[in-house]
Amino acid sequence: MCVIAVAKNTPLNEKQIDAMWEANAYGAGVAWREKDTKGKVLVRWEKGLELAQVQDLVPKIPLPYVAHFRIPSVGGDIAALTHPFSIDKAASTALTGKTGGRVLFHNGHWNNWKTLLLETASKRGDLPTGKWSDSRAMAYLAHAIGLGVLELIDEKVVAFGPN
């Protein structure tokens, strides 16, 4: 299982980050909120991070934030499959980014993801290219079908947004 840490009022400390990394040392991702130059709240993320990068980043970002430490149970040990994924048409695998919408973090293993992904994408005709995992599929499906789909797949998920 992966580890998702939601830091609402207290930032993660170095010891906590070390422990999460030790148990899940295949890349990490972090998402936080910040305002753009016009005052609009956006969600920013960085992923595919190594331990030292997480330790350096976390003290610099505002609360609240979400951190995820990955075990590659689906899709292999590929930085682009580290969480989060943007909940949008592309379910982006970009290592850094920002969105006015939400990003998705997932803890667990969803067995039936390919079936629903292919059914939905074939109806829509817009399956993005690139590597896939159950978590990326959840982000795509949450965009295509709506966030309610996350309640039906019985997995531990955080959809982190601007509010």
| Strand order in the largest sheet | 1-4-2-3-6
Sheet with most strands: 5 strands, antiparallel
**Number of helical segments?**
5
Class from helix and strand fractions? alpha+beta
Q: How many beta-strand runs?
A: 8
Helix content: 25-40%
Strand share of the residues? 25-35%
- Tell me the series of helices and strands, N- to C-terminal: EHEEHEEEEHHHE
CA radius of gyration is 15 Å
What does this structure look like?
By secondary structure, the protein is α+β, with helices and mostly antiparallel strands. The chain is built from five helices and eight strands; from the N terminus they run βαββαββββαααβ. It has helices at 14-23, 51-57, 113-124, 134-144, 149-152; strands at residues 3-7, 28-35, 41-49, 65-69, 85-86, 96-99, 103-107, 156-160. A five-stranded antiparallel beta sheet has the order 1-4-2-3-6. The protein has a three-stranded antiparallel beta sheet with strand order 5-7-8, covered by helices on one side.
